[in-house]
Amino acid sequence: MTNLAIHEKPIPPADDDCCGGGACSPCVWDHYYGELQKWRIEQAKLNEAE
């Protein structure tokens, strides 16, 4: 059994969460993709531990 915490998959930003201007740094999408990458790595570790 593993001690890794299981987190929910990140939810993408709503259509109106992004201004679409391209000037925000970080953009809500940058944050989402970063969290999604962490989640994917976590899932891979959990799959390896099985």
Describe the structure.
With 50 residues, the protein is mainly alpha-helical. 44% of the residues lie in helices and 0% in strands. The protein has one domain (15-49). It is built from one helix and no strands. The protein is elongated, with a radius of gyration of 14 Å. The termini are close together.
Largest sheet, if any?
Answer: none
Number of strands: 0
Q: How much of the residues is beta strand, in percent?
A: under 5%
List segments where confidence is low: pLDDT < 50 over at least 5 consecutive residues: none
N/C terminus separation: 8 Å
Please state the CA-atom Rg, rounded to the nearest Å.
Answer: 14 Å
Q: How large is the count of helical segments?
A: 1
**Molecular shape:** elongated
Helical residue percent band: 40-55%
Number of domains: 1
SSE pattern, N- to C-terminal = H
What would the average pLDDT be, to the nearest integer? 89
SS-based structural class? mainly alpha
Keyword list:
mainly alpha, 1 helix, 50 residues, 44% helix
Write the layout of secondary structure elements.
Layout: H1 28-49
Brief summary of the model shown:
It is built from 1 helix and no strands. It has one helix at 28-49.
